[in-house]
Specification:
The structure holds two protein chains of two kinds. By secondary structure, chain A is mainly α. Chain A is 78% helix and 0% strand. Chain A has helices spanning 8-33, 38-72. Chain A is elongated and about 45 Å long. Chain B is of the alpha+beta class. Chain B has 29 helices and 31 strands. In chain B, strands 8, 9, 10, 11, 12, 13, 14 and 15 form an eight-stranded antiparallel sheet that branches. In chain B, a hairpin with a 4-residue loop joins strand 2 (38-44) and strand 3 (49-54). Mean pLDDT of chain B is 79; it is low at 1-5 and 854-862. The chains are: A mainly alpha, B alpha+beta. Chain A binds chain B through residues 4-6, 12, 27, 30-31, 34, 36-40, 43-44, 47-48, 50-55, 57-62, 72, 75-76, and chain B through 34-36, 57-58, 229, 231-234, 238, 242, 246, 260-262, 426, 429-430, 432-433, 436-437, 440-441, 465-467, 470-471, 474.
């Protein structure tokens, strides 16, 4: 999918939410394998999701916007 | 009918300045057409505007403005300064900046957190001030126009006091409630258990006490962090919100769902959430207090300008608002009055205290023809003056503008601190995640014991399970790491430093000038007009002994006789040396007669007939051509020349009568300034266009050993560059006009003695007074300011950085204690408190060079050394 200024926000949201969910899933799986209780698994997963979102949102969003800018610039030559 | 594609096109009108003909119009149109997303561009030469139709997905107004400027035209933008309350550094610029920049027509947004100011440059044909203000308001901030002048400052002060009041109310709510929650939580422990009722630590009661705190004073942190997050930015508020949210969340679960496994009823962190809010609000209050105090310097300057003025209208003294004084009005000043505008005295005499404007410590005497400046206070006399500069053109207004502009700039160290703080927040969250994972998967099972306590509390955490424990440690890391005082550390110190400079007539044009000034290791002085007065004066008069064979000039036997004849010969001269001799004679009360004839001999001197006698005044060549024997005074002349003076022989009726020496003399404080700068470890260099012998003679008098002589005006910048290549961080001190290229080349260009027309000056620092000691004061203030910046950054980062490992549980395996979130919050508030107190120290600072008794106001030329050669 081509990244433009218009859809950069949506693409970024998909990426950071996806990344956070993935991290949460990895944690949940590890906690399940480690035989932790449900509270620890769910509570821990929730905390991991919050921290992962906080870390990924401000890093992914500018990165996607930057790429959108890079993809627009070459159009000037056409 | 518009096509679907056309429907999302936008129209914008961009003002374009600098177009002179149709070719310009075509050039601008072509440049705009060449941009991606521009569908149509029509330029109107007469209106000076370009109408553009464009696709906002591909192009925006700032890009079009840049394109127009790239091809050599200007896009004049309007500028609005807004007072935005509720901003926090490092965060709000990422919330407000993108939102305002997203408005069509906005070109630039700048922030000054120390003054809560947002400055927006925008095209008023595209965007409106109302749009900008509404956009910022919609983000949850309070927005007000920053008014002009004193009224604006008064309003700013009112709003700032309102902000202080708000934070004070938050404190009044937060602290008593948090203290009660704290007491209730520990009511079961001695000594509280002896007098506290047993129901005091009931969890529903603690819930009832803490919830208003979270929803009241604590609400701001959640609102601000959410506003940031939805725009993809994080800030300190997020650290607070996650810390408070996690502590409160666990407490609520353990109150109402005790079997959920988060530690049960014994483990509620209501007191942590409550004290966190209380400490953070305390930090906010202290920050608001610091911001108000640091703009004190500007407020002092603003207060100087009187609100009313008395002018002569139709011969009648009329009192009018000072703003309404027009250029050309005659203003009447009585004893004790403050001067409302700049002007020139046309009648009367007085002494005027200009200390608050120029830093000049003693009252200055003013006569007809002298300039007076707005803000100065008249002492005893009365006078009238003609208004020359009014309103925003007065020296005071220019100084205020310069100081304000300096205070809105960002020093390189601040940019670095902002960058570090910005990345720090992300890093802290990553660390909190790592710490959580470590204690969850490894640490808890390895080291957890039922004796676990929070540091400095008797509170046992024996029922804590793995998630609760790992979460507690993780939250403590988040809170303890928060560098909330970083955003304030540098700008607060810079504002204090630039304001302090203005008090002494030293104007820094930006925060970078302060930083560069503190790093300077080489000071280059221009000679003429900087170290010296810049105008020659008579230094020596030597009378030739009468040869026994001659009696014809016995009437020329004293110093006054020689000087009077020389002055008479030069009376109509326009040469600077001639003028110096005439001035020298006048200073000694002599009244030289008019010459009967006067003839200038280029490159040699003058020939005149005075009272029937032939008088020659000039150099060796003139004397040789007229066969005058100068042997009697040749050695004296050589000695004078070796001291950098210009020696001129005087001959009367064919016989040598004496020598008059003229030189550009040192300013009174030059030698002291050089000595002080040396003591500060700086290398001092003198640069001059004079020949090496003259330059070295002057340098020797002030104690400068490195002299760059015979440097042409155009070569000064190259010499500065050479010194920089040698590793010098160079400050160039010059008169600001002739030395402009060298001042621009230097790391710090200091224009000295600008007087009060500061706007004209080049250089990054302006010294209003013509006192070379201000160079010393400037470096001392800059060094003190940077010392303050570094100390503030240490206080802002130091506590937190040092205690992060403790919060992460590094000592837990040994002592079985962990840092409580409230202790983490206390450390954070201590940072803010330390920064605030440290910055306020600058208020009482005086540069060491200014601590002695005031220097003499009147700088007279030294008395000439007068001698009659003994023979």
């Amino acid at each position: 999918m081509k990244i433009t200024h218009a859809n950069a926000g949506r693409i970024a949201a998909v990426l950071y939410t996806g990344g956070s969910l993935l991290a949460t899933l990895v944690f949940f799986t590890a906690a399940t394998i480690g035989d932790y209780g449900w509270v620890a698994r769910l509570g821990g997963a929730g905390w991991i999701f919050v921290l992962a979102m906080i870390i990924l949102m401000p890093t992914v969003t500018p990165w996607v916007r930057e790429r959108a800018g890079e993809q627009v610039t070459p159009a000037a030559h056409h | 009918m518009a096509t679907k594609h056309d429907q999302h096109l936008k129209e914008a009108t961009i003002p374009v300045a600098g177009m002179t003909c149709a070719a310009c119009v075509r050039k601008v149109e072509k440049a705009l057409h060449g941009m991606p997303g521009v569908h149509g561009a029509t330029v109107n030469l007469a209106a000076g505007k370009a109408g553009v139709s464009y696709d906002p997905a591909l192009c925006d107004v700032p890009a079009m403005c840049d394109q127009i400027e790239k091809i050599g035209y200007d896009v004049p933008a309007a500028r609005i300064e807004l007072l935005v309350l509720g901003m926090t550094p490092g965060h709000c610029e990422h919330v407000i900046g993108p939102a305002v920049k997203a408005l069509s027509g906005v070109r630039d947004v700048q922030f000054n957190f120390a003054t809560d100011t947002v400055t927006v440059e925008y095209l008023d044909s595209v965007a409106s001030a109302a749009d900008i203000k509404n956009t910022i308001r919609s983000l949850g901030y309070e927005v007000h126009d920053k008014g002009e002048g004193e009224a604006g400052l008064d309003r700013e002060r009112q709003l700032r006091q309102a902000e202080l009041r708000r934070q004070a109310i938050n404190m009044l709510v937060a602290w008593p409630l948090a203290s009660i929650v704290m007491l209730c939580t520990f009511s079961g422990y001695a000594p509280l258990s002896s007098f506290m009722p047993s129901w005091a630590d009931d969890k529903p009661l603690l819930f009832a006490l803490t919830t208003p705190l979270v929803l009241g004073p604590g609400r701001q942190f959640f609102v601000h962090s959410w506003n940031g997050l939805i725009r993809g930015v994080t800030d300190m508020n997020l650290l607070y919100a996650t810390g408070i949210g996690a502590a409160y969340g666990i407490a609520v679960i353990n109150t109402f769902f005790q079997d959920a496994g988060f530690g049960g009823e014994r483990v509620t962190f209501y007191e942590a959430a409550a004290l966190l809010i209380a400490f953070i609000v305390l930090g906010r209050y202290l920050e608001a207090l610091t911001r108000g105090r640091t703009s004190e310097a500007i407020r002092k300057l603003m207060k100087l300008r009187p609100r009313r003025a008395t002018v002569l209208r139709n011969g009648i003294e009329t009192e009018i608002p000072a703003d309404e004084v027009r250029v050309g009005d005659i203003v009447v000043i009585k004893p004790g009055d403050a001067i409302p505008v700049d002007g020139v005295i046309v009648d009367g005499y007085s002494s005027v205290d200009e200390s608050m404007v120029t830093g000049e410590s003693l009252p200055v005497e003013k006569r007809v023809g002298d300039e007076v400046i707005a803000g100065a206070i008249n002492k005893m006399g009365a006078f009238r003056f003609e208004a020359r500069r009014v309103g925003a053109d007065t020296a005071l207004a220019q100084i205020i503008r310069l100081v304000e502009e300096a205070q809105t700039t960002k020093a390189p160290i601040q940019a670095l601190a902002d960058r570090v703080a910005g990345n720090f927040i992300l890093g802290v969250h990553a660390l909190a995640l790592t710490v959580f994972l470590f204690w969850f998967f490894a640490g808890y099972s390895l080291w957890f014991t039922t004796d676990t306590r929070l540091i400095l509390t008797p509170y046992k955490l024996s029922e804590l399970e793995v998630f609760g424990f790992a979460l507690l440690v993780s939250v403590s890391v988040l809170i303890i790491s928060c560098p909330c005082a970083v955003g304030l550390a540098t700008p607060a110190a810079m504002m204090a430093g630039t304001g302090k400079g203005a008090e002494f007539g030293i104007l820094f044009k930006g925060a970078d000038a302060v930083e560069s000034s503190s790093r300077v290791n080489t000071v280059v002085f221009d000679k003429t007009g900087t170290l010296t007065r810049g105008e020659p004066s008579v230094t020596d008069v030597i009378v030739a002994p009468p040869p026994p064979s001659e009696t014809s000039r016995r009437d020329v036997s004293t110093v006054d006789d020689v000087l009077a004849l020389a002055a008479a010969a030069e009376k109509h001269s326009e040469h600077p040396l001639g003028e110096a001799i005439v001035r020298g004679a006048s200073d000694r009360g002599l009244d030289p007669p008019d010459p009967q004839t006067f003839d200038s001999v280029p490159g040699q001197g003058v020939v005149a007939k005075i009272d029937g006698r032939d008088v020659l005044l000039g150099n060796r060549k003139l004397m040789a051509e007229r066969s005058i024997d100068i042997a009697l005074l040749a050695s004296e002349a050589e000695r004078l020349e070796s001291e950098g003076k210009t020696a001129m022989f005087v001959a009367v009726d064919g016989a040598l009568a004496g020598v008059v020496a003229v030189a550009d003399t040192l300013k009174e404080t030059s030698a002291q300034a050089v000595r002080e700068l040396r003591k500060m470890g700086l290398e001092i260099v003198m640069m001059s266009g004079d020949n090496r012998r003259t330059a070295e003679a002057i340098a020797a008098q002030v104690g400068i050993t490195r002299v760059l002589a015979e440097v042409l005006p155009g070569g000064k910048a190259a010499e500065v560059r050479r010194l920089q290549e040698e590793g010098g961080v160079v400050a160039m001190v010059g008169d600001g006009v002739n030395d402009a290229p060298a001042l621009a080349q230097a790391d710090v260009g200091m224009a000295i003695g600008s007087g009060t027309d500061v706007a004209k000056e080049t250089g990054s620092v302006i010294l209003i007074r013509d006192d070379i000691l201000d160079v010393v004061a400037k470096i001392q203030i800059a060094r003190q300011t940077m010392r303050l910046v570094r100390q503030n950054l240490f206080w802002a980062f130091g506590y937190n950085a040092a205690t992060i490992p403790l919060a992460a549980g590094i000592a837990y395996p040994l002592i079985h204690q962990i840092v409580s979130p409230e202790l983490a919050a206390l450390l954070m508030a201590t940072s803010s408190f330390s920064v605030t107190m440290n910055t306020l120290r600058m208020r009482g600072y005086r540069p060491p060079i200014k601590r002695g008794p005031p220097t003499t106001q009147t700088q007279r030329a030294p008395e000439p050394q007068l001698a009659e050669a003994a023979r």
